[in-house]
Amino acid sequence: MDEQLLPDLLQLRGSVMAASDEFFAAKENLITPVAPAFAPHTFDVKGQVYDGWETRRRRGPGGALPDPSVRDWVIARLGAPGVIRSVVVDAAFFTGNYPQACSADACSVTGYPSAEELAAGPWQGIVARGELTGDAPHSFAVGSGRRFTHVRLNIFPDGGVARLRVHGEVVPDPALLEGITFDLAALENGGDIAACSDQFYSSPRNVISPGLSRVMGEGWETRRRRKPGYEWLVVRLAGRGVIDLAEIDTSRYRGNQPEAASLQVMDADGEVPSEALSAERGWRDLLPNVRLLPDTPHRFRVHGAPATHVRLNIFPDGGVARLRLYGSLTDDGLAAVRRRWEETG
């Protein structure tokens, strides 16, 4: 699998906690969800304004170049614990002021430590020092199978980075899921999109992302169908579970919401081939066709058997802001979540 097709763990309500320096541009810009932008000749009192994180120039004694080990750093908290598969360091629009090199570390800690408490670690290298070029994204594969909660980006010796992305697999804490009802589809709980018929306007992963959509672009919207049929997406649940309440939210979609929708479930043992996810056979009805209104969260009580995957069908096309599937894990579903947590610890 392409690691960059995995969720960005920083976008699951992660945060930038601390930086060694942010003289020219704020550290928080690193995890802005949209692509970086640049307006030439836009100056403030510190110079050209950049959409990213930029530190001041480092100097050695007497104005000499700094020692090669000198670095600036930034610490970010992942939105959910996870196994990191790749780190993307994007130097977009930084042409004469990008770092020479970078590296990355990660650590796994419990609770909510402060930036000062994190400074001492325990940090583990996940990306070896590598060269950077200006105005370009750089993707670094991560081979560790451990679960982490925080990352530290190091830049040598100084400079600017537009965006930081940390792609990986969420590993939910079973202690937070046991014995409660929660959103089995949510990315932050370990759900993900397994397949989709169309994603012309926006990513299907948006529908299981945290929070409410603020604009249409923060949902999932398909192109207009010009032939018979319908569009669909498949959610792999956080674990095998039973769904009691479904919410199909068309907020912000006015004039382009689906006419109707339905939900189906599958109870699978292990990985499911893509052809099985796209086929109409092998699915059981969870929610029959229901009419959808524009700009409305629709909630339905459902009574389903245990399932591992849910398929949302929309007729014939259109946009959905959020899909929420509230339920609880089965005993074997919770056991599988526990095993994953222990294996990555």
Secondary structure layout plus pairing:
Elements: E1 15-19, E2 43-44, E3 47-48, E4 53-54, E5 72-90, E6 101-107, H1 115-118, E7 124-131, E8 137-141, E9 147-156, E10 160-161, E11 163-170, E12 182-183, E13 192-196, E14 220-221, E15 231-249, E16 260-266, H2 274-278, E17 284-291, E18 297-301, E19 307-315, E20 319-320, E21 322-329, H3 331-343
Number of DSSP E strands: 21
Mean pLDDT: 95
CATH superfamily of the largest domain: Galactose-binding domain-like
Number of domains: 2
Structural class: mainly beta
Indicate the overall shape.
globular
Helix content: under 10%
Q: Biggest β-sheet, characterized? A: 8 strands, antiparallel
The secondary-structure element order is: EEEEEEHEEEEEEEEEEHEEEEEH
Overall CATH class of the largest domain: Mainly Beta
Beta-strand percentage? 35-45%
Low-confidence parts: none
